[in-house]
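[agent] plan:
  1. take the single chain provided in the ticket
  2. run structure prediction with default settings
  3. attach structure tokens to the ticket
  4. add a short note for the reviewer (M.T.)
[agent] executing step 1
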Amino acid sequence: MMKYTMLVLAIAICMTGASAAIIQETHGPVAMPAYVTTPFTLQQLVLPQFNTAQGTLLGVQISFSGTLLGSLKFENLENQPVDMTWTLTGNLSLSQGGTNLVTVGPGTNGGENGLPAWDGVNDYAGQSGRTLTPSASASGNASLSYLFDNLTPYKGTGNVTLMVAANGAASVQGTTGTGQSEFQVSTGVQGIGSATITYTYDNLEVEGPSVPEPASLFALGLGIFLLTSYLRKK
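[agent] step 2 finished; step 3 output follows
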């Protein structure tokens, strides 16, 4: 039993010194208009690169969160009550160098509002008008590894630029007891995105020649000594 204990101790000491560290930064939010009928509106999200002087980059994780903000205004122009139905839908995406990293779909938000007959003023307020600011949010993650992905864009002493795209739409419909109603409407959608980047790296394997710390040399030497002693006794 003593021999096995000594062997395990020797191996454990030899492995001592492996170390990993994490850097995490959050940037944003950035905002942009979002429309389905026009090309995506892109907004830059600038994140700091990983300085390889600190160690060897092992992986990158990007946590992305996005929100769609709607602006819905409608006015009932009928001389009778109207049921107004509204929806907000869309998604946001994050890309780097033309490659999509993650897409989050806030999905759909919606509701109904009953409006009395027109009050004589087109102001999206009063008895016959409404102004709403609904929102829908979602989040997602992109994980990159040095084993499977190109981490070069994330290395350096500058910044890596990610692109945020928003795609959304808001709509309003009105009905009365006799069918479609006459109403005045104004809609708009804005996308907001933010990201947290996390670098995982080995802080011992730095580029260029390195000098082992005295404590690491002592642990390595002790491990070798114990392992050699065990092999001799065996």
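[agent] step 4 note for reviewer: The first helix runs from residue 2 to 15.
[agent] ticket updated
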